[in-house]
Design brief:
The complex is a heterodimer of chains A (1036) and B (416). Chain A has 1036 residues and is of the alpha/beta class. Chain A is built from 33 helices and 44 strands. Helices cover 46% and strands 1% of the residues of chain B. In chain B, helix 12 crosses helix 13. The chains are: A alpha/beta (1036), B mainly alpha (416).
């Protein structure tokens, strides 16, 4: 079979002029000296400039030379703690907490500073997986915008004064109730703390409000199963998965856990190839939809109808949908589901009670209970019910709320009717905020007692019933902050602090002092035996009502809007994190903004941009300036730039929530994007994250969006960038398993074939590979494109943040990027993600062009980069076929001796990253690169050296994956929730990498192998579980 | 470089095993003193009461020698036998438990006791003796320089004389000679001097530029006159007792105040040889210990609250550029390299100075010649080819496998 065409942009698809131009050169910009088109030597005053530079450098050298060596101090401990050795990292198990989301992590603490988070492998939920947001949360600890002390009316105060003032204020409430407004509380001991407070202040109550609501599921489960809870989902047990808009690999419910489960059935055993089948129905391209085997598009207003159609199809009734493709999809999905009863799972991301009731009915018909849906343990992550909060807002406005203690949520930003909430706040006697940042809601509060960061806190969490995860501080609190539990305990007259409370609470349950210590060391407390999976009794009474309600749903208008969460941004809690802002969105590859995602079809009619015409594609794609539209819905409007993204329904647009934050929460959030939470609306009893009738108007303006999509295009006569991918279908793989290996053999036959290619395909001598030879394998079938590795790489390797203006100029610094490739139908294409880092070529083209030998090869197969030798010619990057080398165009890290290097060149966010506080996150084992040098992925060489040293100290060979024991894991490998990345010593026949390469011979390929660069990274081809005919049909 | 390499070889071959892993080996009478200072001196003195009793005459106080040995080895177990003297002693010292020394052999305890019984109270030593003598390594450069200069002047004079004589004879013979050119206008001379100046200047500039940031012989004044000679040399304290990180960490950490106080709770005066600074000023050791007490916030004779101690700000001597990764544990524990190889004879230095260049060339040269623990460390078992070559004699077994051969001179071993 001819490999199908993959494309990253429409320019590439149409082979437009602009694309060809951009693919010609490594660097898009001309050097500034050529701006007058005359060349360097014909410029107006070259002699004067020369003398100026000469004089300056001589003077600088003299100044530098005449300086005496600075006197440095060594200040040892006064009393060294026993378990701290300066220079050796300690690891403490703790828990990432963001509202209700809890992920067990292990914090790496170097010389008292947490600098990196890894997943805790003892957690049966995440099994050591992480996400981009978890990886980035260590930077939030050092956020310069954190509140540094408690305030009353914005003035600094002490905790004693604060406690006194609160006691007075409580005393003068006159019986008006106190309301504790929280996001979902997953901590059992904190719930106890809240109960104590409530007991002490009769009449007070707790209200739970989640910015992203799961009320629909909670209420539907209450109606059909009698339990207001969300059961565990077992994607690993499902052979057929149908998702109705649930982005379960990106943002839905428990994405790390689900990614781990999902990828289990994506690992292919070559001897008996089989994998799960995933149908996805959605309105706007999502991460999960992009990973699906088959994806179908519908309007948001049809969500209910699609669910009903699926139920009908499963029950053998007629499918009543007008869209033929969608109808076909429902039929296919239903057939697959029926064929796999008991091994099938249907999930829905809708927050509509009726839709969720229908989904429950579908799962009941498929006998999913106790098999793919497990009621033995339920999620505590999302407990909020929208009507509770709506009622609170009304109570506040009616003046019947005395005091409001706000722990977590930020309704002034996230509530759709925030003006009503703000009005209500004025009628509350007093409000206390425990937010660590001066966010939109905190700005309305008289008393502010900033909470610790989770890395400074004690605590516990129970993300799923029966599964506990503990928090312990990894650093002494940086500022005058206090855990909210301590405040509540104090105000309820308790004599112990929260730590004492926590210990008492746990030592009984964990088995005394020793049990507590052990649990703290492990970070998790799991059920002794895994509970048996449980179904639940289904009450079908509610189904007919739900069906009737869905049938009565309003028809959608001309344009509909989906308000989605980005993988990096969620509901916007992390908007001040520069790493996340600069992380390219997996789907759009855009950074630093939110925007309108629009289908190519709508762009044609609304914006007159037809991307199938090469010229128009160029006009749209080559410049970062994107057309701006005005979106109006529910009487509110925003103006945002448009990104044309295939895979969006033609009548729907998508906008990410979480942007348009107040500038007080941090420099990185300042002026970034627009808030679209006001577009959410109450539909019945629950919040709806879609607008079914909106208007979109052209404004005629443009706005630059920092897209990385087309940054790394590079074509040479020897190899096209798009040939780096290989993809095939499961049926084709079954029919001809040797297709890929035969193709490779055929291509390399003139140069000795696969076996002798390394020696025969070159005129260079062959080099021995004694000892260790590093290698990496990336399974494109497991990779979901979630971006955890990208942020892990940032944190591990001190990769600088460059800011939006620099990304616009192609100056992004990611050592590891995830390329997104489309194939097939340009309106609803298939998507493949490919993580691309330095391929550590054994015959690296970058090495032979370096004039100063700054990049050369190690005997262990590493393409080494000596920063201090680099003089910045950038020849290496020009010669790299993968475009993975990154050049420090400016002094992003503030590491040069001349502070003026940064003035007017980098923006405030980058300067903030160089603040003394932010720099605490830097890994002390990795050089901070200066301006003017090239850098790139090193395979985390600091970890390799450390792992080797560990083995040497124990006088044994290095172990990389033998019996799942690891001396060395790269940061990306460790962060990956789907174990897509395997790394190790290829000279060791027992290592995981050797075994992976042996077991996956047939899917294995190397990017641009024909160039004879001999990369040490290999990929395993993407396999899609679709029938050959289905693809041909879809491609028409 | 050659003498340097010889030092490396001699020292590596000679002494490394002894130093890293503490005490042991044969026992001689003089070991009583060092055993005493290693094990007992932190709590006991011979002639005065510290944390524990003065030990002078201890054997007379314990009639049963066997009991004394048992007591020393494991006092807690011996207490349980109900021995009245032992219990009295225990109560008298506020039930402060003595450390356990299960590792001491009878012979070793005997040596300690012998040292105690032989002990004579020190009489104040007569001053003077061996004062630090000035560096005697005669540097002949100056002499040669002066000689060269004199010879050059003589040669120059002779040349002038020669040319004058030639002129005279020419005049005599009536040969017309050109107008004499004064030597400062002589082009040959000018060219010669210019080239000479260029060479010398260039050499000095290059050498100066290379030396930028290198601090060989750097010997800053420290906040406390801490003599390594007294501690590591005379009193034989193991380097790792204070620099405990050297085995585990990239840093060989400078000890914290509480480590100093482990010994200096008891040792509050200096009674050894006179101490001198590098400039030749006499140093009062006891005063320096008092400086430590100030940092530690300790008054002799009173209980010490360690939490009130303040750290000492030492001046850093050995500085590597920020882009160099150096790991002490790699060298000490894996490479079994002696501290002295890089730091010089630190046990003979009062104030520490940097003796090595700490330049890249210096590192690389050592990596080129130093052998790894190829046969002893299991890590290297994966280098099957080298093992075979060693067996087959293809590799010179006296030269062995050097650090360079396993990639120890590659950029990314130290720069990342």
């Amino acid at each position: 079979m001819e490999q199908k065409k993959h494309w990253q942009s429409f320019g590439e698809l149409n082979n437009s002029e602009g694309y060809q131009q951009s693919a010609k050169d490594e660097f898009r910009e001309n050097l500034p000296v050529w701006e007058d088109d005359k060349g360097l030597f014909d410029a107006t005053t070259p002699r004067r400039d020369f003398l100026k530079y000469l004089g300056f450098s001589t003077a600088a050298a003299m100044v530098a030379a005449s300086c005496e060596v600075p006197v440095k101090k060594i200040i040892p401990f006064a009393n060294k703690p026993e378990d701290v050795i300066p220079g050796v990292a300690n690891y403490y198990a703790t828990t990432y907490l963001q509202d209700g989301e809890a992920v067990s992590v292990v914090a790496k603490v170097r010389d008292g500073r947490p600098i990196k988070l890894e997943g805790n492998e003892l957690s049966p939920i995440t099994k050591g997986g992480t996400s981009a947001r978890v990886q980035s949360s260590v930077l939030d600890l050092y956020d310069t915008a954190r509140l540094r002390f408690p305030t009353i009316d914005g003035k600094e105060t002490t905790f004693e004064n604060m406690d006194g003032a609160i006691a007075n204020a409580m005393g003068s409430l006159g019986g008006a109730p106190v309301v504790i407004l929280t996001s979902s509380v997953v901590s059992p001991s904190s719930k106890e703390v809240i109960n104590q407070f409530i007991a002490r202040h009769p009449g007070s109550r707790q209200v739970t409000y989640d910015a992203i609501s799961y009320s629909g599921m909670l209420l539907a489960n209450e109606a059909t199963y009698g339990k207001k809870a969300i059961p565990s989902y077992r994607f690993d047990n499902a052979k057929v998965i149908v998702s109705l808009g649930a982005d379960f690999l990106g943002t839905w419910l428990s994405p790390i856990e689900f990614a781990k489960q999902y990828s289990k059935n994506k690992k292919i055993n070559e001897k008996a190839p089989a994998m799960s089948k995933h149908f996805h129905f959605e309105s706007v391209a999502s991460l999960t939809g992009s990973n699906a085997d088959e994806r179908y598009l519908h309007r948001p207003s049809e969500t209910g109808a699609v669910a009903v159609a699926l139920l009908n199809a499963i029950n053998g009734q007629a499918v009543n949908l007008s869209d033929a493709a969608l109808k076909e999809g429902i039929k296919n999905a239903a057939a697959a589901l029926i064929a796999n009863k008991g091994n099938a799972l249907v999930v829905s991301g809708s927050n509509d009670v009726n839709v969720q009731i229908v989904v429950n009915a579908i799962n009941e018909a498929l006998q999913s209970g106790g098999k793919t849906i497990d009621w033995s343990s339920t999620y505590n992550t999302y407990q909020g019910v929208d009507t509770d909060f709506a009622r609170l807002v009304e109570d506040m406005n009616a003046g019947s709320v005395g005091a409001l203690l706000i722990i977590g949520p930020n309704p002034a930003y996230t509530w759709f009717d925030s003006s009503r909430f703000v009005a209500g706040m004025k009628k509350v006697k007093f409000a206390v905020s425990f937010s660590p940042k001066n966010d939109e809601t905190t700005q309305l509060c008289k008393y502010v007692i900033p909470n610790h960061h989770f890395l400074e806190s004690w605590g516990d969490a129970e993300p799923k019933t029966g599964y506990y995860s503990l928090l312990q501080p990894t650093i002494y609190p940086l500022f005058k902050t206090r855990q909210w539990q301590d405040s509540l305990l104090k105000w309820s007259g308790a004599t112990t602090d929260y730590l004492g409370f926590l210990k008492t609470y746990w030592s009984a349950k964990a088995g005394g002092e020793n049990g507590w210590n052990k649990a703290l060391q492990d970070g998790v407390l799991n059920p002794v035996t895994e509970p048996a999976m449980l179904g639940a009794a289904f009450n079908s009474g509610a189904v007919s009502g739900a069906l009737a309600a869905i049938a009565a749903n309003k028809k959608g208008g001309k344009v509909e809007v989906v308000l989605y969460q980005k993988v990096s941004m969620g509901a916007g809690q992390t908007a001040s994190n520069p790493w996340l802002q600069e992380m390219p969105d997996p789907i759009t590859r855009a950074t630093w903004d939110n925007y309108v995602m629009m289908s190519p079809a709508m762009a044609r009619t609304l914006l007159n941009i037809d991307l199938n015409i090469a010229r128009e594609a160029d006009n749209y794609e080559v410049t970062p300036e994107k057309p701006v539209v005005k979106v109006t819905a529910n009487g509110k409007s925003v103006t945002l730039p448009v990104l044309i993204i295939p895979g969006v329904h033609p009548d729907t647009i998508g906008i990410a929530v979480g942007y348009g934050r107040t500038k007080e929460i941090g420099k990185a959030a300042e002026g970034i994007g627009q808030n679209v939470f006001p577009f959410t609306n109450m539909s019945g009893t629950t919040l709806s994250y879609a607008v079914i009738d909106a208007t979109v108007e052209k404004t005629g303006n443009t706005y630059p969006v920092a897209l990385m999509q087309t940054h790394n295009v590079y074509d040479t006569p020897q190899g096209k960038r798009t040939e780096v991918m290989k993809e095939l279908t499961l049926s084709a793989f079954k029919k001809d398993p040797e297709e890929i290996i035969n193709d490779r053999e055929k291509e390399l036959a003139p140069f000795g074939g696969l076996k002798d290619y390394e020696k025969e395909g070159t005129i260079y001598p062959y080099f021995d590979k004694p000892g260790i030879h590093w290698g990496m394998s990336v399974d494109l079938n497991s990779c979901t494109g979630c971006g955890a590795c990208v942020i892990a790489c940032h944190a591990e390797n001190n990769v600088p943040v460059v800011g939006k203006p620099e990304v616009l100029r192609f100056h992004d610094m990611h050592w590891l990027r995830i390329d997104r490739y489309y194939s097939g139908n340009p309106d609803n294409p298939k998507v493949v993600f490919q993580p691309l880092m330095c391929q550590q070529c054994d015959n690296a083209p970058c090495e032979n062009v370096c004039p100063v030998g700054a990049t050369n090869h190690s005997s262990e197969g590493l393409n080494q980069m000596a920063y201090n030798r680099c003089i910045g010619t950038r020849y290496c990057a020009n010669n790299c076929p993968y475009k993975v080398r990154r050049f420090n165009w400016a002094d992003y890290t503030g590491s040069d001796s001349f502070p003026d290097n940064q003035k007017g060149i980098v923006n405030d966010v980058v300067l903030m990253m160089n603040d003394g506080l932010s720099r605490m996150v830097l890994n002390p084992d990795v050089t901070v690169r200066a301006r003017g040098v090239m850098e790139k992925c090193t395979f985390c060489v600091q970890r390799l050296q450390d792992g080797k040293l560990k083995a040497k100290k124990e006088s044994r060979p290095l172990i990389t994956g033998e019996d799942n024991k690891w001396d060395v894991k790269t940061a990306c490998q460790q962060a990956c929730p789907t174990d897509a990345i395997v790394f190790g010593n290829v000279n060791d026949s027992h290592s995981a990498i050797t075994i992976t390469r042996q077991e996956n011979k047939l899917r294995l390929f190397k990017s641009l192998e024909q160039l004879h660069v001999l990369p040490n990274v290999n990929y395993l081809a993407k396999v899609r579980n679709v029938e050959e005919e289905a693809i041909e049909k879809a491609e028409g | 470089m050659i003498p340097h390499r010889m030092i490396i070889r001699t020292v590596v071959a000679g002494i490394f095993v002894v130093f890293l892993f503490a005490f042991g080996g044969n026992l001689k009478a003089q070991d009583g003193k060092s055993l005493f200072s290693q094990n007992c001196a932190s709590c006991h003195a011979i002639d005065k009461k510290l944390v524990g009793p003065a030990l002078m005459g201890v054997e007379d106080r314990w009639p049963n020698k066997k009991h004394l040995y048992e007591w020393i080895r494991n006092n807690q177990a011996f207490l349980k036998t109900g021995d009245p003297y032992a219990n009295k002693l225990y109560n008298e010292y506020n039930k402060t438990a003595m450390n356990l020394f299960p590792q001491l052999t009878d012979a070793e305890i005997g040596a300690i006791l012998k040292y105690i019984s032989d002990y004579k109270p020190a009489t104040p030593q007569a001053a003077g003796g061996t004062a630090t003598q000035p560096a005697a390594d005669s540097d002949n450069t100056l002499l040669f320089g002066i000689l060269t200069l004199i010879l050059a002047v003589i040669a120059f004079t002779l040349m002038q004389v020669n040319s004058n004589l030639k002129k005279l004879t020419d005049n005599k013979e009536g040969i017309e000679s050109p107008e004499p050119v004064p030597f400062w206008k002589n082009r040959t001379y000018i060219a010669f001097v210019t080239i000479l100046l260029f060479l010398v200047g260039g050499y000095l500039t290059t050498k100066g530029a290379i030396g930028l940031g290198r601090n060989i012989n750097y010997e800053p004044k420290q906040p406390i006159f801490y003599s390594h000679k007294v501690h590591a040399g005379i009193n034989q304290i193991n380097c790792l007792y204070c620099h405990s990180g050297a085995l585990d960490s990239k840093y060989s950490n400078v000890p914290s105040v509480n480590v100093c106080m482990n010994c200096h709770m008891a040792i509050n005066e200096y009674k050894g040889e006179k101490l001198y600074t590098a400039d030749g000023d006499e140093v009062n050791g006891t005063e320096e210990i008092k400086k430590l007490y100030e940092y530690a916030n300790f008054t002799p004779g009173q209980p010490w609250d360690a939490s009130k101690a303040k750290p000492i700000e030492w001046t850093k001597i050995h500085m590597l550029p920020a882009h160099v990764y150096f790991n002490h544990s790699q060298h000490t524990r894996v490479g079994k390299v002696q501290c002295q190889i890089c730091h010089g004879e630190i046990n003979k230095m009062d104030e520490v100075k940097q003796v090595s260049e700490l330049s890249m060339g210096w590192c690389i040269n050592c990596h080129r010649t130093t052998q790894v623990q190829f046969k002893d460390n299991g890590f290297y078992s994966i280098y099957e080819k080298y093992h075979q070559d060693l067996k087959d004699g293809k590799l010179d077994s006296t030269k062995g496998v050097t650090v360079e051969m396993i990639g120890g001179t590659e950029c990314q071993k130290c720069h990342y």
